[in-house]
Design brief:
The chain is an alpha/beta fold and 506 residues long. The chain has helices at 40-45, 50-56, 97-110, 126-139, 170-194, 202-216, 225-231, 234-240, 293-308, 353-365, 380-386, 398-411, 444-453, 490-501; strands spanning 3-7, 18-25, 33-35, 66-70, 79-87, 116-120, 159-163, 219-223, 248-254, 262-273, 313-323, 335-337, 343-345, 371-376, 391-395, 415-417, 435-436, 461-466, 472-473, 484-485. A hairpin with an 8-residue loop joins strand 4 (66-70) and strand 5.
């Protein structure tokens, strides 16, 4: 993991292998490139002409842009890396956290193979330190566990030193500690999503959670296939029946000493989704190891809350199964008796996520938490609606849905509130069972939410996050987002716990 420290050293005197500064497009009628605050000493070393030098090299200040310049004799670092921040804010305004986070991520990715980099980006408050730290540590991520790269292979940026902060300031120290804990757990979630499904079976995933529980003093309970059968978890068992790797339901609990709010997070953990008997078509299977990203996010959020000592009680429920076709697999037309006692006619075995979530949601409801949030790579329909960078939010409480949307925006994650139209409920009526796992095709992401709502305990505030789009980046890396698993929704969940600890659940 990349190290993160604060330093009071000047940008010109600190010894590092690279020096990161920010540049922006001048606001208003004055055109041209401007050097962002934090890089004054660097500009001075360039004789006040850093912007001019960078413009000569093609820099425009656009977001996502990275420009390298050889350092003059007045700097200890051999080169300067300028990252674009977009249009400079007004005189009384500051750079947005997400702008700093993204710029730091771009810089960290560009500095792959570098040992130490000093970041001289704009810092006006502890929130800026937190954003830069998050961006740099998330941007430096690389998944190389299955690559034999040799002794001479270059690794991610090894050390990040943030300039402009105060190491002895409590708020600044807390910002660094939060960045470290949060990004380490997000990167662990990314590792889990990226791990091949032949290694990350439900049993193996449960073992990872158990090990983390011991490390951080968390209580972990694992229900194996025998316990699931005895307990009547027909949804989880029905999905996992076709696999030689049996399912698991994992509970991981963080309890604060104070009498605190209780949040329950429920994660879809399909460690591989073939579609089951309703087999996915060619071209749709290759990235289905990511179908456990919701469970990975829940796991990461609970551990982060524990590491930060947040004054709230958080329970994570990980519904883990592998959805495979075989002679023992659930068939279209089968009826499953869920943990709640309700029966479900399975019309499509590729709509399996809602089945495992249904059991876990009902189990979580038994503890009567203040709120439940489930997270799942649930529907392709949500990707059609919102694209691959934005997750959808549905809820049985409008204020709670709005609060989560605001929290996501505050955390730098793209989300959008979605409805739960009452008229869609009729489409999942079944002539054979209490309910069917499929309804009308149009609005399929909303139909899934309507189905899940049926398995939330009465009177409990609940929200559903469909992260099918942003959970896995199958394209080129950008900002602090790598190719592969992204850790989507972890930041939102952790911020939600912080809100609960502050007595503001929305």
């Amino acid at each position: 993991m990349t190290a993160l420290t604060l330093s009071t050293a000047g940008a010109a005197t600190l010894r590092a292998d690279a020096l990161v500064v920010g540049v922006a497009k001048a606001a208003g009628p004055k055109a041209g490139l401007v050097v962002a605050p934090g890089a004054e000493a660097v500009d001075k070393a360039f004789g006040g002409k850093l912007a001019a030098v960078l413009e000569t090299l093609g820099a425009s200040g656009a977001e996502g842009e990275v420009t390298k310049a050889v350092s003059p004799s007045g700097l200890k670092a051999p080169f300067v890396l300028a990252v674009g921040l977009g249009t400079a804010p007004g005189e009384d305004e500051a750079y947005a956290s997400e702008v700093l986070r993204t710029a730091a991520g771009n810089a960290a990715r560009a500095l792959h193979g570098i040992k130490k980099a000093a970041f001289a980006l704009p810092v006006e408050a502890a929130e800026d330190i937190e954003a830069i730290g998050e961006g740099a540590l998330l941007g430096a991520y690389a998944f190389t566990a299955y690559q034999d790269r040799g002794a001479d292979a270059k690794g991610p940026l090894a050390e990040v030193t943030l300039l402009g902060g105060k190491p002895r300031d409590k708020a600044h120290k807390a910002a660094v500690e939060r960045s470290l804990a949060l990004t380490e757990e997000i990167n662990r979630a990314r590792d889990l999503v990226n791990t091949p499904p032949n290694d990350l079976t439900p049993e193996a995933f449960a073992a990872v959670v158990s090990a983390a529980g011991k490390e951080h003093g968390l209580k972990v309970q694992v229900l194996d296939e025998k316990a699931l059968d005895k307990g009547g978890y027909g949804g989880i068992l029905g999905v996992g029946n076709g696999s030689q790797n049996p399912p698991r339901l994992v509970k991981i609990s963080y309890t604060h000493a104070k009498n605190a709010k209780h949040l329950a997070f429920v994660g879809k953990g399909i460690t591989y989704d073939s579609g089951g008997i309703s087999l996915k078509p060619a071209g749709h299977n290759e990235t289905m190891k990511c179908d456990m990203a919701g469970a990975a996010a829940v796991f990461a959020a609970v551990v982060t809350a524990a590491r930060l000592g947040l004054e709230a009680n958080v329970t994570g429920w990980l519904a883990l199964a592998e959805n495979m076709p075989s002679g023992s697999a659930t068939r279209p037309g089968d009826v499953l008796r869920m943990y709640s006692g309700k029966t479900v006619e399975v019309l499509n075995t590729d709509a399996e996520g809602r089945l495992v979530l249904a059991d876990a949601l009902w189990k979580a409801s038994e503890e009567n938490p203040d709120a439940i949030v489930d997270v799942a790579t649930l529907t392709g329909a949500m990707m059609v609606a919102l694209g691959d960078h934005t997750f959808g939010i549905m809820a049985n409480d409008d204020a709670f849905r709005t609060a989560i949307h605001e929290i996501a925006e505050e955390s730098g994650e793209q989300s959008w509130p979605m409805p739960l139209p009452a008229n869609l409920r009729k489409s999942i009526d079944s002539p054979t069972a209490d309910i069917a796992n499929m309804g009308v095709r149009m609005g399929g992401g909303l139909v899934a939410g309507v189905f899940l709502k049926e398995f939330v305990g009465e009177g409990i505030t609940w929200a559903h996050l469909d992260i099918a789009g942003p959970a896995f980046n199958d394209g080129a890396p950008h900002g602090y987002t790598p190719k592969g698993g992204t850790g989507s929704s972890v930041r939102t969940l952790v911020r939600l716990v912080e809100r609960a600890a502050a007595g503001d659940l929305g």
